[in-house]
Amino acid sequence: MAQEHFAASSPLLIAFRLAFGVLVLVTVGAQLSIHLTARYNAVNFFSYFTNLSNSIAALVFLAGVARQLTRRLPNSVSDALRTASVINMAVVGVVFAVLLRNVNLGDLRPWVNTVVHQVMPVAVFIEYLSWPPRRQATASQLGITLCFPVAYLLYVFTRGASTGWYPYPFLNPITMNGYAAIIPYVAGIVLLFVALAWLLTRLSSRIAATRKSAAWAA
Fold it and tell me: What mean pLDDT comes out for the span 68-79?
């Protein structure tokens, strides 16, 4: 319990979450302003998985700060949201590095690109590993987190079919010459989510076992 109280009130954790939470909100806000000034569609902006995931990660960080300042310990819901945020941001980093690094990013500013695709995925992992959730993640809990990417893909294809606009070239059946060419990309991304969910399940299990051993030793 002493370790939980320390983590819940740690000034370093508060500073870390606050700094990166504000950084991401400012970064996404700056790019949104550029997007709107160029008369681009606001819905399209938030249809990018990168923008959604970074915004969610920032809100998770800031909600964690609010919880710390009010001295409320994390619960299963906040732990699940943190885990989902880590998975989302890991996918953002990996997909960008593998599929989008050499793609023309249009009006996306280089410094914004660095923050949302490189800095923040690393920051989320550092936060998660340095101050891991108190509870072991369960398979059912992580299964729920996979609903977000599935819902996102359904949204992309449904909206794209009616508007002709898709956020990423590898999800665009028009430029990819049909849905058949998209299947390997979708399958790969889904498998990446599943692999990361499994990895975090194992990681939280190991952390829980380590804490239990430490408690017995004390």
Answer: 79
